[in-house]
Amino acid sequence: MRESFTEKSKLLECDEKKSRGNADFSCQEMSNSVQEVLPHSPEIDNKKMLIGVLIVIGIAISWVGSTQLAQSAFSADFNAPFLITWFSTSWMSAVFPLYILPSLLRGIRIRSFYRECEAVFGTRGLQLRTVFQYVGPFCLLWMVTNFLYVSALGVIPATDVTALFSSCNAFVYIFSLIWLKEKLAIVKMVAVTMCIGGIVLMAYAEGFNGPNAVGVTLSAGAAVGAALYKVWFKRIVGDATLGQVSLFLSCLGLLNTVLLWPIVLIFYYTHYEFFNWGNIPWKYLCGNAVLGLIFNFLINFGIAFTYPLFISLGTVLGIPINALTDFVFRGAQFGSCKIVAAFSIVIGFLFMLLPTETEVVLREIICCRFISK
């Protein structure tokens, strides 16, 4: 993905025969060289763009809907974030069947297709041992991350939670520097600073010692957990195909359903979570699970049909939609400090989406200014 900037020496060539008066010429030459090295943007396909817009809207609406429904489930008689998380994650087992359904309807042979998908579990393929080996740790991390996210919804508004969770990309970059040997980039470091600054500012707005600070901590913890999941998946599994990801997620959902239900009972009987078995808000839980399934489906498979940038923009679009929903239906008020914090996180998120070429151009501009002096 990254291009080696092989003409760096050519761009920086400023020998003694070029005086201070020729610095402007050097900068112009540098600018022309950068334009030659950077690839030209491909012609945008209108159909792909239209599909991308529809997927962006779908991602934003499904994320907002699942978040709002999860928050609506909380009441004086129901406070069970783990039950919500477990129930919603169980629905992830439907991802692979939904993925292969079109192929089955077209009469495509599934055997070779399935063998390609199960390669995500190594040379042994899909076995009980490989499921525990590969999916087990990710299932635990997935559950902890989503448990923190849902728990935060019981403390602070959904807008705050989604804004704080959007700092995930900043933590992805930090962990990539450590484990994936990502190159240090000025733009991305600025983005990390803005995201972390937004988190601190949000905590300040909620009051560092107040109960809402717990919600900020839970949201930030969920962002860190999601970042760990992404980087760890990249390190362990690598570049998986869409079919492999769908099979992996289905196994994750099944493993959660079969193994983690005792935790629901433990939390219930220890009164860590409280709810009435006969009065569980199933309409909110089912709505959250369905929209969560749609959200993950669009996230994981939308990239095959449109530009990856659109997929990321869908989550950013969810922040203002959540804010509007909280304001209209929940009467939430947002102070200037919160708005600045959310804006800082969103800008940092968008900076993370800038292509690698932006870093190259930025370095050359800085170098150009230095030469001009």
Quick structural overview:
This protein has 17 helices and no strands. The protein has 373 residues and is an all-alpha fold.
Structure annotation, total helices:
17
For the sheet with most strands, the description reads: none
Radius of gyration: 24 Å
Mean residue pLDDT: 82
Strand element count = 0
What general outline do the C-alpha atoms trace? globular
Assign the structural class, choosing from mainly alpha, mainly beta, alpha/beta, alpha+beta, or little secondary structure.
mainly alpha
Given as residue ranges, the uncertain stretches (5+ residues, pLDDT < 50) are: 1-41
Strand content: under 5%
Helix content estimate: over 70%
Distance between the termini: 34 Å
Protein name: Thiamine transporter SLC35F3
Keywords: Membrane, Transmembrane, Transmembrane helix
Organism: Acropora cervicornis (Staghorn coral)
Protein described:
It is built from 17 helices and no strands. By secondary structure, it is mainly alpha-helical. Helix 3 runs parallel beside helix 15 and helix 4 crosses helix 14. The protein is globular and about 70 Å long. The two termini are 34 Å apart. The N terminus is likely disordered.
Topology:
Layout: H1 8-11, H2 23-37, H3 46-73, H4 81-90, H5 95-105, H6 110-117, H7 128-153, H8 158-165, H9 168-179, H10 186-206, H11 212-236, H12 242-259, H13 261-269, H14 282-301, H15 308-329, H16 336-352, H17 356-372
Helix pairs in contact: 2-17, 3-14, 3-15, 4-7, 4-12, 4-14, 5-12, 6-12, 7-11, 7-12, 8-11, 8-15, 9-10, 9-11, 10-11, 10-16
Keywords: Membrane, Transmembrane, Transmembrane helix
Transmembrane segments: 49-70, 82-105, 134-156, 162-180, 187-205, 211-233, 245-269, 289-319, 331-354
Protein name: Thiamine transporter SLC35F3
